[in-house]
Amino acid sequence: MKIKNDLLLRAATGVVIERVPVWMMRQAGRILPQYRALRAKAGSFKNVVKDPSLACEVTLQPVDELGVDAAIIFSDILVISEAMNLNYEIIEKKGVFFEETVATKKDVEQLKVVNDLEEIGYTIEAIKLVKQELGDKIPLIGFAGCPWTLFAYMTEGKGSKTFAKARTMLYQTPEVAHELLAMITQSTIFYLKEQIKAGVDIVQIFDSHAGILSPALFHTFALPYIREICEAITEVPIIVFAKGVGYAMEELNSLPCQVLGLDWTMSPQLVRNQIGMEKSLQGNLDPCLLYANPAYIQKATASMLNAFGHQKHIANLGHGLEPTTPLDGIKCFIDTVKAYEYVAS
Ligand code: 1CP
Question: Which numeric CATH code is attached to 7-339?
Answer without folding.
Answer: 3.20.20.210
